[in-house]
Amino acid sequence: MSLISQIQEQVLEGIREEYKLELSPNQVVINPTRKDVEGDLTLVVFPFVKMLKKSPQMIGEFIGEMLMNKLDLIDKYDLLGGFLNIHLKDGFWNERLRDIYQNEHFGVHPKTGKKILVEFSSPNTNKPLHLGHIRNILLGWSASKIAEAAGHEVIKTQIINDRGIAVCKSMLAWQKFSDGETPQSSGIKSDHFVGKYYVIFDQKLREEYGNWQDSAKAKEVYQSFKKEGEDIDKFFKRYKNNYFNEYSALGAEATTMLEAWEENDTEVRALWQKMNQWVYDGFESTYVNLGVNFDCLYYESDTYTLGKDIIEEGLSKSIFYKKEDGSVWIDLEDKKLDHKLVLRSNGTSVYMTQDIGTANKRFKDHGVDAMVYVVGDEQDYHFKVLFEILKAMDEPYTEGLYHLSYGMIDLPTGKMKSREGTVVDADDLMAEVIEEARLGAADRGILEELSVEEQNEVFSQIGMGALKYFILKVGPKKRMVFDPKDSVDMQGQTGPYIQNAVVRINSILRKLENWNFDLFQEYSEPLEAEKNLIKHIHQYPDLVLAADAERDPSILASFAYELAKDFHKFYHDVRIIKAESEMAKAYRVVLCTAVKDVLTKAMDLLGIEMPKRM
Fold it and tell me: Which of 133, 308, 567, 609 could form a disulfide with 129 if both were Cys (CB 3.0 to 4.6 A apart)?
């Protein structure tokens, strides 16, 4: 039981005995005391005033005296308005530091028996991974690692969108315009190679559309479908998708290819398998460089027919209803959502149908208690509907459904567009931040004693640490503007700033090989700066649980930055190697080691490695 939980439990028991009132732990608000106020923990008294009909002073005095009598770890308390500031005994902090130092599993919680499936990445096979995918992947990977640290069994998965008209566009463009070029012959990374032809398709389509706009048929269409007062340029900008479906020769060829794929045409399927494999090989290389992996994969080419039987079952139970045209819908107005199509009139699936079927398949495959979908916030409505449908079907896993919604990443110049080639490719971005780390090291003239291989490992760790931390320090729900210069800044609230704290501690420990742990026990009056560091690292297990409950890695990113900042200040203010006594030296070695270990663990949950040198 954590310290805060112990105090909460004692307060609840005291109020129950004295005032005959039953409260819940979340009504006892306890936070670390602000740095500008003396004390270790602060209990907020104001919520009890109305319930107990007593003044804040009377309630605070009662709780303070009761805690002093019941808990030996409390040294004293003081009241500041409606806040009870609790001072803990120095011996308590020394015991906590010893426990943290000796517990290699500090922050790793007992097994809960709960199994969680986390879906992230889930790319399309018509283009390489880009900056938007990186945010998705890093959030999914970190949420998975945090869930494991919180005691859950985690299954990491993705559904690869390997079929559909977009995939056929890149296939058709390669077939028509490549002249047999391959990733090997071109020297282009294989997923980038396929993405190149997706862009070429759009370029050729725009050329075709531009030429069509001068035709008599185009002018006839404009006259028939223009909105009142709409000029011809604005009309054709709006009409592009209609043109693709109704008049485009390229559009007709791509649609025919998709139909042939669905009919299992041998040649189309062979081309599809070849180009998809190019993409898979490219994806795997990017995942390795990002340091992520998956436990199982699902493919839309396998799942797009799932869900129809579930819809039929729901019809028999009147969960869904059928319109006159044969299409099937669900009425979710009582959930403030609307009516939602789940089967077209011709009996074919929509994405919602597939997602219903895929959720059921995953439950049958893995028997999970919860499913976390890491998907951008433009799909918020979709997941609200999906979850309500699954609840209406009374599926056994619905209490554990969670959409880890995140905001999009924009460039300083605006939105990224894959068709127009204005994305920041994941591979290019990783290469850029690693190169920035290399240039920074060259400017400072460091790492020269390391081999080239060792230097490259350090540059990779620093660059990737900068990139990952830049993205994960922002709460998932916030939209981000990605500025490459800001992402590789080596100062301030950055990954390298935190990494440097660990590197600095390692340097200290290398110089202090001879010290006596037994002397640690004799250091009885820690400095305020030392207690501040212990207080900070003591919070870590609770913050792991909070980050898991909220599916928010930025909680741990903020924790790591604040701890690193406290340590850097401690390093400058307090003597470590030349401590005033052997007891102080031993104490500070233990303290530095604990800080290093907790920083390393917290950053590992963000997917960030610690370099040995910087």
Answer: 133
